[in-house]
Design goal:
single chain; mainly beta; 0% helix; globular
């Protein structure tokens, strides 16, 4: 499985970005999917997750109400809509495919990772 994340870039505080993650070589419609992020000098942290059917989601507290994860199984893709961005959201964002269909919030429950896309929020 290959995961390709895209949609990152520079944005001013308060702005929005939509990250996309496309999967190839294998369908991921049975896998939970997630987004993680890693800022320089920090551990990779959980941001958002969605179960295989898309009807259950989870978020880290710091992005609740600002970020929305969604998926389109017909397109084998997952998205992260980010609004009201803050400088502390600056990081490399990674999409990942879970080992199971349910939601997962820890890195060890993910089997496949994309290469990451940089999000830089300026104040």
């Amino acid at each position: 499985v290959q995961l390709q994340a895209s949609g990152g870039g520079p944005v001013q505080a308060g702005g929005s970005l939509r990250l996309s993650c496309a999967a190839s070589r294998r369908t991921l419609s049975n896998n939970g999917m997630g987004w993680f992020r890693q800022a320089p000098g920090n551990e990779r942290e959980f941001v958002a997750a969605i179960n295989w059917s898309g009807d259950t989601t989870a978020y880290v507290d710091s992005v609740k109400g600002r970020f929305t994860i969604s998926r389109d199984n017909a397109k084998n893709a997952v998205y992260l809509q980010m609004a009201s961005l803050k400088p502390e959201d600056t990081a490399v964002y990674y999409c990942a495919a879970g080992l199971f269909g349910r939601i997962a919030t820890v890195k060890t429950q993910y089997a496949y990772w994309g290469q990451g896309t940089q999000v830089t929020v300026s104040s």
